[in-house]
Each structure stands twice: as structure tokens, then as C-alpha cells.
Design a protein that fits this description.
The chain is an alpha+beta fold. 13% of the residues lie in helices and 31% in strands. It has a 7-stranded antiparallel sheet, with helices on one face. It has a 5-stranded mixed sheet with strand order 3-2-1-8-9, covered by helices on one side. β8 and β9 form a beta hairpin. The protein is globular, with a radius of gyration of 15 Å.
Length: 162
């Protein structure tokens, strides 16, 4: 299965702006969701063949972001997370960022562990406590999670990850 990143709209079939019930229904093919509700916010999550998928409803009734995680050290998955055809968790981070920039999605790496594509609120994580190959700066060679949100998500979050 392929999960296609579609910034700033979501990750099909999850779309930003969906209600919690719509998000649960959209992910019905992924198995039983885990739903957590907290004061005015909620999240719904699935494991899709080892890839973690989470729809975030932060402070309101609608999905504000979708985050995906790689399966983890020593685990494999037949599910790919794709950005413009590139396998997000299977492409070296530097190559992924270079290719994204060549397609008009320049990646801001000023926070090396949390690179972002401004304007579409596409954020990556390059950190893990697991034993993985790392570059000369100690960063994992591959991204470990990716978040798709609305255009101004990181501005609204003051640069913080959701």
C-alpha cells in the first residue's frame, strides 16, 4: 500500500478539516483506530502494516495535521509513504530534501532535527533513540516521521512540532 503525502491537504484518505468521525471513517480500511480525547482536542491513530498514522485534532473539531512514523529499527513494511513519488522513509534524507527542492519545495534545515517545507507545512523529524545509521552530524540518515498540516501550521505553532 502507498500512503501519498498531499501537502497542505493531508494524506489520502485523511484530509485536513475532517471531523473526528470523518477521519475514523476514512481510515476504516486500516483496521480499528485508537481514539484519544483530551480537553478540546483529539487524535485518532492506526498502524498501517507497521507505519504509524495519526490524525491530530488540536483544539477544535477538525483535523489540523496528519503525522506518519517509520516502522522502527529492524522492522520492515510493505506500506510506503510517498512525497512526489519518493519513498519518505526509504530515501536518504539529504536526497529526499534535494529532490523536494528541485520540485519547488525548498526544505528549511535551520533546525536540523526538524526540517520543514514552509508554505505547505510539511515537517520532518530526524531524531530517534534507536540504533540507526547516522551522518557525520549524528543525524539519522533517514527521516523518522513526517507531518502534513495546513499552510500556516508552523507559524501558528510558533515553530513547534504538533
Amino acid at each position: 500500500m502507498d500512503l501519498i503525502l498531499d501537502p497542505p491537504r493531508g494524506v489520502a484518505p485523511l484530509r485536513l478539516g475532517m471531523t473526528l468521525d470523518e477521519a475514523v471513517a476514512a481510515g476504516a480500511g486500516w483496521g480499528e483506530p485508537r481514539v484519544v480525547r483530551r480537553r478540546g482536542s483529539a487524535l485518532v491513530s492506526w498502524s498501517v502494516d507497521g507505519v504509524g498514522v495519526q490524525a491530530l485534532l488540536e483544539g477544535g473539531p477538525a483535523v489540523t495535521a496528519v503525522e506518519l512514523w517509520w516502522p522502527g529499527e529492524g522492522r520492515t513494511s510493505r506500506t510506503r509513504v510517498l512525497l512526489d513519488g519518493d519513498d519518505v522513509f526509504g530515501t536518504l534524507a539529504e536526497d529526499l530534501f534535494r529532490r523536494a527542492a528541485a520540485r519547488g519545495r525548498p526544505v528549511d534545515t535551520s533546525a536540523p532535527e526538524y526540517p520543514v517545507v514552509p508554505g505547505v507545512s510539511l515537517g520532518f523529524t530526524r531524531q530517534t533513540s534507536q540504533e540507526v545509521p547516522r551522518d557525520a552530524d549524528g543525524l539519522p540518515l533517514y527521516v523518522t516521521s513526517v507531518l502534513v498540516a495546513g499552510r500556516d501550521y508552523y507559524d501558528a505553532q510558533d515553530g513547534a512540532r504538533g
